[in-house]
Amino acid sequence: MVQEAVGLGFEYMELSHGIRLSLVPGVLQAVDEGLIKISSVHNFCPLPPGVFGAAPNLYQPTANTQAEQALWFRHTLRTIDFAGRVGAKLVVLHSGSVHYWWRDAGKKLEEGADHTPFEARHTSPSYQKLIDKSLRRMKRKQSGAYRRLVENLRRIVPFAREKGVLLGIENREDFNELPIDTEMSQLLAEVGESDVVGYWHDCGHAQLKERLQLTSQEQLLTENAGRQFGFHLHDVDADERDHQPIGSGVINWQLIRNFIRPNHLLVLELSPRLRSKQVAASREFMLRLLDQQEASAAGK
């Protein structure tokens, strides 16, 4: 894993939520020997004992039971501690979700989108009505979960500050996950602690939500610019599949470029199914994009 990243020209990498315990010694050795640097770590990392596949939502801060909340807290602190050990600047966090016993609002919306051509979604009265209805149900359902989310995020801040690790709250792709996109800035304001807690923008997730007419890249980036820590960078194809090679899909990368700042962490989050040359091409695409940004800034 590390050797491949280095071979493709990467100096830094993010440790994902798929790192098994058995991989930790090799990762630590690579870091200690200076083979690779770690920019960020994705919760939960390493995976909890007995878990062998990516499971970022295994335990949730919004859970109804104190037992699950305690497990989320325990393994999130473990991730923060690991991030400090490997010299990472930031931990990327998911924020939980709401669950429906019947008539799932997110599923209803996705079904409506499947039956409405993309070009017609912003003008279709029936689809717009479905969006409004789904959001109303989500807002009614989320009240207890949202309160638990704020409380649990505040609980982990002192430990993150002690370890010198930032906490990036990621925008999510699933309708039922928190926070609602238009409420991300509200969540950040309620949690506070702006020296530790900030926004993590996933370009692919934002694009999927934009195609559902729920938000837009520009809206999310504009509303949360003052609290943003970095990006997950990947493209979305015309069939709405994300984690595709950068520049190969429908994302407006010139728009993304305008919001990138020198202090932001930039992480290519590409599908493991991609070939090495596609990963290399994505890296080169971003380097050219950043060169354009620097040239534009120098010309002002």
Task: Write structural notes for this entry.
The chain contains 11 helices and 7 strands. α3 (66-85) links the parallel β2 and β3. Helix content is 46%, strand content 12%. It has a 7-stranded parallel beta sheet with strand order 1-2-3-4-5-6-7. With 300 residues, the chain is of the alpha/beta class. It is globular, with a radius of gyration of 19 Å. The model has no long low-confidence stretch (mean pLDDT 95).
Layout of SSEs?
Layout: H1 2-7, E1 12-15, H2 24-32, E2 37-42, H3 66-85, E3 90-93, H4 105-114, H5 125-141, H6 143-163, E4 166-170, H7 184-191, E5 197-202, H8 203-211, H9 217-223, E6 228-233, H10 253-259, E7 265-268, H11 276-298
Parallel strand pairs: 1-2, 2-3, 3-4, 4-5, 5-6, 6-7
Helix pairs in contact: 3-6, 4-5
Concise summary:
The protein has helices spanning 2-7, 24-32, 66-85, 105-114, 125-141, 143-163, 184-191, 203-211, 217-223, 253-259, 276-298; strands at residues 12-15, 37-42, 90-93, 166-170, 197-202, 228-233, 265-268. The protein is α/β, with parallel strands linked by helices. It starts with a helix and ends with a helix.
Global morphology: globular
Low-confidence stretches: none
Assess the beta-strand content as a share of residues. 5-15%
Text of the CATH class of the largest domain: Alpha Beta
